[in-house]
Amino acid sequence: MRFEIKSSYPPYFDSQLLAWIKSHTMGFRTAFPPRRVNNVYFDTLDLRALDDNIAGISQRCKVRYRWYGHNELPDQGTLEFKNKHTTLGWKDNFRVDASPYVAGDTWRAFQRKLRRALPPEARVMLDEHGEVTLINRYDRRYFESHDRKLRITLDSNQSMYDQMRSPRPNITRRINLPDVNILELKCEDLDRRALVRALADCPVRIARFSKYSAGSALRD
């Protein structure tokens, strides 16, 4: 299991935050080239995952299909079940090697193709979250400490699109989001004290944040 801390911050803090990362005593360095991250989120018809997140339910699950790059519609990627129990989290990931989406598909056609690409246990979990609710995308930068125990990601240029009002992907009508970047710090549970110490002089105020909840709350 891993321990995560996530917070939003104004884009004008970016240079200050980068300076903090690069000068940190834990020797953070670039861990992976920057890339574009895309997600399709799933939920129940009554939006149970959203409600659980907003309420801070200690045990919850978030379901998303993730792919990388500048293709705006789903490409080959990974179906992720992001589980949370109190402050700890873990993922069940299922790789999808061929794109489950073809131009002109409805969301139902996408879900059928995605389901066929999954093992039986993943199909059952996906069926429990049968509604496509949101697309979001952002640019992500990756850093890790010298000992590789702590990881930092910085997300910027976010955009989100409501999917609950259209049978086909909506990638034109954006949700009106505030202009914020996202800082996320991750480590294994055994290293959480080191992560908390690393944050002692962080220039950004740490506060709970969820991209899915933020985008869902701002639907028209």
Give the low-confidence spans. Answer: none
Tell me the series of helices and strands, N- to C-terminal.
Answer: EHEHEEEHHEEEHH
CA distance, first residue to last residue: 36 Å
What's the number of helices? 6
How does this model look, in words?
This protein has 220 residues and is of the alpha+beta class. It has a single domain (2-217), classed as Hypothetical Protein Pfu-838710-001 (Beta Barrel), CATH 2.40.320.10. The chain has 6 helices and 8 strands, in the order E-H-E-H-E-E-E-H-H-E-E-E-H-H. The chain has helices at 14-22, 48-55, 107-116, 120-127, 192-198, 211-217, and strands spanning 2-9, 29-43, 59-68, 77-85, 88-96, 131-144, 150-162, 181-188. It has an 8-stranded antiparallel β-barrel with strand order 1-5-4-3-2-6-7-8, surrounded by 5 helices. Strand 6 and strand 7 form a beta hairpin. The longest helix has 10 residues, at 107-116. The relative contact order is 0.24. The mean pLDDT is 91.
Fold topology:
Elements lengths: L1 E8 L4 H9 L6 E15 L4 H8 L3 E10 L8 E9 L2 E9 L10 H10 L3 H8 L3 E14 L5 E13 L18 E8 L3 H7 L12 H7 L3
Antiparallel strand pairs: 1-5, 1-8, 2-3, 2-6, 3-4, 4-5, 6-7, 7-8
